[in-house]
Design goal:
By secondary structure, this protein is an all-beta fold. Helix content is 0%, strand content 46%.
């Protein structure tokens, strides 16, 4: 994306020290101007990680969206006019950053994955934002926001994926995180 203003809301505060226990969950947003009815996918992350994303777009805006958590699709939110685009994440792939733009409505959404893929929807004009979790091992776990005929606001909720590995797996401290770190 080029031009525009960038909002960056994801750096650890300078007062966070090793004496304070860091939390893995964080929130980025709200990005947008408001209006519409609130929605939240909270609770659906218990069905599993994000495995697919559907976004309806027209020539100007993000019209609607739907996210699959494990094998369960969220309710569709937003309007009905425009082209529906659907992208599936690879097994084990996670969203580690989200960027986009908005004016009165959301105009662009780009989901960056830990496999280096960029899942892009919409056009890149307006006020731009870039969101990442505070914890480098966290990934996008669920979405919230506001919607009417278009998506007006989006919020991004980050956390680590619960460890469901069998007891014979390597200890969590020696397993690489989504960005390749340990």
């Amino acid at each position: 994306m080029s031009g525009g203003n960038w909002e960056v809301l994801a750096s650890k505060p300078p007062f966070l020290s090793t004496a304070v226990q860091a939390r893995s969950s964080s929130y980025s947003g709200e990005y947008g101007r408001g209006g519409g009815e609130p929605f939240s996918h909270s609770g659906l992350q218990l069905e599993g990680p994000i495995t697919a994303i559907r976004v309806r777009v027209n020539s100007l805006y993000i019209v609607g969206l739907q996210v699959r958590y494990g094998q369960v699709w969220s309710d569709y939110v937003g309007g009905k006019l425009g082209d529906l685009e659907e992208t599936f994440l690879h097994p084990g792939e996670s969203v580690i950053a989200v960027s986009g733009s908005y004016s009165y409505y959301l105009k662009t959404l780009v989901f960056e994955t830990d496999e280096g893929r960029f899942l892009s929807f919409g056009n890149d004009t307006g006020v731009m934002f870039y969101a990442i979790p505070l914890d480098l091992d966290a990934v996008l776990r669920f979405i919230s926001g506001r919607a009417g005929l278009f998506i007006t606001v989006i919020g991004l909720h980050w956390d680590t994926i619960p460890d469901t590995a069998p007891a014979t797996a390597e200890p969590a401290s020696s397993v690489a995180g989504p960005r390749g770190g340990v």
